Amino acid sequence: MKRLLSVFLSTVLDNKLYDSQSNSAGKIIDLGVLNNEQIPRVAALRIKKDNGNVIDVNYGFIDIYEQDNGKLHISCEKTKEYRGDNLIYLSKKLLDKQIVDINGRKVVRVNDLKLAELNGVLKVIAVDVGFTGLVRRLGMGKFFMAFARLFNRTLHDRLITWDNVEPLRLDTDKLTLNVSYKKLSKLHPADIADILESLDTKYRNQVFQSLDDETAANTLEEIDPDIQADMLDSLNEDKASGILDNMDNDEIADILDDMEEEKAEKLLDNMEDEDASEIRTLMKYEETRVGSIMNTEYVSFSPGLTVEETINELRELKPQSDTTYYLYITDGLRRLVGVVSLRNLIVSKPDTKLSEIMNQQPVFIRDTDTLDEVTELITKYDLLAVPVVDEKNVLVGMCILGDIVDEVLLPRWKRRLKRAI
Fold this sequence. Notes:
This protein is of the alpha+beta class. The chain folds into 4 domains: 2-90, SH3 type barrels, CATH 2.30.30; 95-167, no CATH class; 185-284, MgtE N-terminal fold (Alpha Horseshoe), CATH 1.25.60; 300-407, CBS-domain. Helix content is 37%, strand content 24%. It is built from 18 helices and 21 strands. A hairpin with a 5-residue loop joins strand 20 (385-389) and strand 21. It is elongated, with a radius of gyration of 30 Å. Mean pLDDT is 84; it is low at 170-180 and 412-421.
């Protein structure tokens, strides 16, 4: 017999465990791991004895051998019962469950687990998410491999190393809300959003709640609008408020519009008065009007400021990158009187006044105009953003190209795709 240093979980399950006298101690029904290390360590075998009792046997006394006929022989020097706490059972908690492939940025199904002995300890080193893992568990692995050879094909394991996965259910019910999902939180928010949309509601909300407020806010902005409100509604008020504090008011207005009025009002009551008032105003716009998608966190300056003074103010304000494509110039009544591009600001001399370099006939759109009109305008003039004014020409916001794509162009494309299908 050959002692094995690596095995698949499926090949271990349902085997008998033999003691030092070659007597059967019971049938192996699961493996228990400790998940307080970077790579989970197998601490016990769960066996079902001939009398029906189920016990955990300390793995430290166990060896796995491959017999000449290819079957496994699993033996233990002592069937010492494991007395520790916090064991997580691999078959029960991971097989057939969802798991996040961090590198592939997608949710996959666990078909099997690869175990290997590292420094004398058996650890979970990889997840098998491929076809071979599935047929191996069904006991048909050899048949399919032989069948593939008839056509000069080779079946390969599709393994993802443990470092590159994020389990979604590797916890006890008691610890569900303490899962950190550190690997997942390092992905781009758009990738996290794609992953969350692939999960069922329960685990989508669990993972979302585990993200820090800033990451959760950026992710929520990328989530399908059809489920944004439900995700926010699943959180307690403190967590929801923390996430909204990291979002633009126009994004908040879109989400709260789809929530129950009572819950939306509670969240608004927890905000700063100025922000809450602004969001309520945005929520009053019809969804086909420019005001419904405009960003109210624009940057505006007085025409009397110099280039140097303006740059110093920008350093202090640290505005978001997509709100600084253009600097809007307003008079004492906040009416739009000009626009300065970021390029013109940078190449101008420090003592030049904004009034000298601004475009005094800026392209603009009114908050009551339609989304079709702003789409046509921004396309016609090849703009990255366009200022939004009210009936008195007072600057009330800006429409950013990205928002127009998300709110107008992408939904139309999706509708056409559905009709084509």
